[in-house]
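So, could you explain this one?
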Amino acid sequence: MSRTVDVHIGENARLIGRLHYKREGGRESSAFEYADDWLKDPEGFTIDPGLPRIAGPQFQRKTEGGSAFHGAIADTEPDGWGRRVISRDHAKRRQAQRRRGEEPPAAALDALDYLLAVDDFNRMGALRFMHEGQFQRHVEEGRGTPPLIELGRLLRASRAVETNTETEADLACLRGRGTSLGGRRPKCSIIDDDGILSIGKFPSVGDERAVVAGEVLALELAAKAGINAARAKLIESDGDPIAVIRRFDRVDGLRLDYMSAASLLGADPREDHAYTEIVDAIRIHGARPTEDIEELWRRMAFSVMINNVDDHLRNHGFLHADRDFWILSPAFDVNPFPDRDRELKTWISEDAGPEATVDALMSVVAYFGMTRDRAKAILGEVEAAVSLWRDLGASLGLSGPELDAFAPAFEHREREAARALA
């Protein structure tokens, strides 16, 4: 079976190419082909280093655990939570059609079904997919992305999915709203009080600590540490904490093209990779390499200080700047992990391995183009910001026991080493 989708970009929906998808039994593959006008346009750019701006189809075959699409396209796919909502919704619809005596759709969804199940308005980045003459919208009864006032309803629907008690109404509530973003935790797209597209992140039924508040705490500490971080706040809905995090791929109503670090490197995020590889990619593709490389080192230092050890390559991103050049996106998905070993998902370097230590940080200072004095100054700024974690956490409403549960992530010998060095 083969299908073709037109690929557009931005609010003006400029056609940039076509995506051809094929499934043969259990094998899935795709081919992306740039449109002639995009190839001729001096303002056109390469949407992914793995998709050079050349004529003709460029192929991608799905591997075990991988995607059927090239990196920049795969970055817009649902993952984890989104796939869970989509598959449950599909199953409920099949049941309803059978009850009505209608012929249901195929039992199994394929890679293109999942890609197209993401709502066009909420899809990450600027790429847009037109299938059978229309952009894909999946919101209930034509309603758009919900405002904050509907968070309670969305939380209840998400909790029902987590506990396998969801109804058709729950899935209709989440359709198109809870499918746009990566990660395994429950979340949805919302419009905040300023009318800006944001992410609502919910507590999970399996949480053993205040995970949602912990992420907001980490992002606020990151900003105090001089890191360009996504803006976040904590609100309550019927007594439950919800993180509201602004989407950084929307500015003044415009969509910004986004690519994960995995796509920029052409890397498999399931394999071991190092920050030094991201440095190499920034030197090749970066619009402001010196600034972004120093920012990356600051983010590494912050991850070491708060034990943010889920820093895989899809949790680092880039925004399109100009021509074929990119800049680091604001930091996102930054969390303290008090119950995890101090080993980074993305190694500081191949020599350092996964160890999250000050010694490993200082071992790559020259590779990052910094002096030791500059690195020490940054480390001091980061450590000083992190030292505020308990007071800032209390200001967010975390109780004493909730703060104590996070203490191992914030209070450890690497902070002592940072203070001594700085």
